[in-house]
UniProtKB/TrEMBL annotation:
The lineage of its organism: Bacteria, Pseudomonadati, Pseudomonadota, Gammaproteobacteria, Oceanospirillales. One of its GO terms (molecular function) is ATP binding. PROSITE patterns: ABC_TRANSPORTER_2. The keyword Nucleotide-binding applies. GO terms for cellular component: plasma membrane. Keywords: ATP-binding, Nucleotide-binding, Transport. It comes from the Bacteria. Residues 2-231 form the ABC transporter domain. This is Methionine ABC transporter ATP-binding protein. It comes from Oceanospirillum multiglobuliferum.
């Protein structure tokens, strides 16, 4: 589902690469935990996987599509269709209700809408089903996002990422604001939903206690030759 070959990325303001990855393959349905200390390049890697930025060298393929051969606008479309994103700051729209936030990606992505149609459901029904699975009380569905707790907003952000079953889900430290029990509960819900939609999950955190929820762990400093060289 995801393939990196000889990737090298240097931030424009820097002289040395932040990331050098010779090879990385992630299969469909894998749940991968990417771990490493602050500054080792985790967020940079996710931005490359999401096609927000492209590497100066090498190739990144998502579902056989080479991201560097697409224009920035085409990458935006590709991302909307194929990648569900969950960030630390959720990026939910405060003036929209919970339900409208969850169905929003279907307005930007024909593919997500089509996948729902093929599954015999609508964006609204799919959003309700996801929110139910993620244990978000029905009494909150019409409320504006601003009236929800952080933990509740997190679950809305996950439902929004998952709607229309994009083949790849990328999550960047979405549990950092939660206590241990809520974190484990949240991850159990997230991984169960990812299994349901058979997406590949790439989850980044510096908290290695979360490892038990995943099928594979990658220590980024071991994979990233740029960081290894700096540390040597
Ligand atoms: N916008 C930017 N411009 C220039 N350099 C950047 C930028 N963002 C990150 N970097 C560089 O890339 C390196 C890796 O940063 P990145 O945010 O990917 O690390 P991280 O592992 O996600 O860290 P954290 O756990 O603290 O979020 C940083 O040390 C920094 O030097």
């Amino acid at each position: 589902m995801i393939e990196l070959q000889n990737v090298s990325f240097t931030w424009p303001s820097q002289t040395e690469p932040t990331l050098k990855i010779e090879s990385l393959t992630i299969a469909a349905g894998e749940k991968v935990f990417i771990h490493g200390p602050s500054g080792c390049g985790k967020s940079t890697l996710l931005s490359l996987l999401a096609g927000v930025m492209v590497p100066q060298q090498g190739e990144i393929l998502i579902d056989h599509q080479a991201l560097q051969s697409l224009s920035a606008g085409q990458r935006d479309h590709f991302r909307a269709d194929n990648i569900g994103l969950v960030f630390q700051q959720f990026n939910l729209l405060p003036y929209l209700s919970v339900l409208d936030n969850v169905t929003l990606p279907c307005q930007f992505s024909k593919q997500r809408k089509l996948r729902l149609q093929h599954a015999g459901t609508s964006p609204k029904d799919a959003a309700q089903q996801l929110l139910r699975h993620l244990d978000l009380s029905e009494s909150l569905w019409q409320k504006p996002i601003t009236q929800l707790s952080i933990g509740q907003q997190q679950r809305v952000a996950v439902a929004r990422a998952l709607i229309g079953s994009p083949p790849v889900i990328i999550a960047d430290e979405p549990t950092s604001a939660l206590d241990k029990q809520s974190r484990d509960q949240f991850l159990a819900l997230l991984t169960a939903e990812v299994d349901n939609s058979q997406s590949s999950l790439i989850f980044v955190s510096h908290d290695d206690e979360l490892q038990k929820h995943f099928s594979r762990m990658i220590r980024l400093p071991e994979l990233n030759q740029a960081v290894l060289r700096h540390e040597a």
